[in-house]
Amino acid sequence: MPQPPPKKSRTVKAARRAPAKKAGRPAAGAAGASRGRRDPAADDHAPAASGAASAAPSPEADLATGSSAPATTKHSLERAIGGQVRALRRHHDLSISDLAATAGISTGMLSKIENGQISPSLSTLQAIAGALSVPLSTLFSAFEDQRDCSFVRAGQGLVIERRGTKVGHVYQLLGHVLRGDVVVEPYLITLHENAVPYTGFQHAGIEFIYMLTGEVVYRHGDQTYRLCPGDSLLFDSRALHGPETLVERPMTYLSIIVYPRQT
């Protein structure tokens, strides 16, 4: 007698009836497993893992600047010419439209020239120079890659007169540069026995004082500071300031004044 065929498993039937899941986001466990797998092909593009040894920075990057000041970039000819045109235009108190009309060019072109966005033709530069009443070479003068440097030997600072000279303060200028966006005036100031206090100094910029010898009570605004050798003071020099009490004379200190250069 033939045997009846075996019954199919309910589990198999259920699996067959279950609709296929649509492709989408993987389950949490699958996502975690996917993230945990290492993709060798992506190693070349992935950032170094935290704590891993990173590539050593280039020596040029380390030596580009010794401070938090941004590193200098190359000064393109277009930017140099544009900056010179803008400075001369402002010096003559001309608007962009005024200079453009006189030079016979559009205001849009002049604006691009001043921003260093285009390289103007020689005839255009000649027209601009003529409108500004300057030689053509003047427009190229800012491109000269010159960096000033000042060297002063010990004891040979230039003695100059300043406001404090009349009260016995001796000023030796220790350096000077003619170019740049800011003016830096480094002084070695000496107060001898005949010097008297003076707290009426007031000028634009920032001033830094470093005490070398002697002792002084220095006033800045409504505050006073007792300075001994090795002490320093940095302040906004628009407030009234100066030595209020000369505790120990003679005294010497470095005074470095920095303010924007007027163009």
CATH classification, class level of the domain at 158-260: Mainly Beta
Oligomer: single chain
Could you spell the SSE succession in H and E letters?
Answer: HHHHHHHHEEEEEEE
Radius of gyration: 36 Å
Beta fraction of the residues? 15-25%
**Strand-pairing-aware structural class:** alpha+beta
Determine the CATH topology of the domain at 158-260. Jelly Rolls
Mean pLDDT: 80
Q: How can the largest sheet be summarized?
A: 7 strands, antiparallel
Indicate the percent of residues in helices. Answer: 25-40%
CATH-defined architecture of the domain at 158-260: Sandwich
Number of helices: 8
Low-confidence stretches: 8-55
Shape: elongated
CATH homology-level superfamily of the domain at 158-260? Jelly Rolls
Number of strands: 7
Distance between the termini: 117 Å
Walkthrough of the structure:
The chain is an alpha+beta fold. Among the domains are: 77-143, Orthogonal Bundle (434 Repressor (Amino-terminal Domain)), CATH 1.10.260; 158-260, Jelly Rolls. Helices cover 26% and strands 24% of the residues. A hairpin with an 8-residue loop joins strand 2 (169-173) and strand 3 (182-191). The termini are far apart.
Keywords:
about 260 residues; alpha+beta; 434 Repressor (Amino-terminal Domain); 7-stranded antiparallel β-sheet; 8 helices; elongated
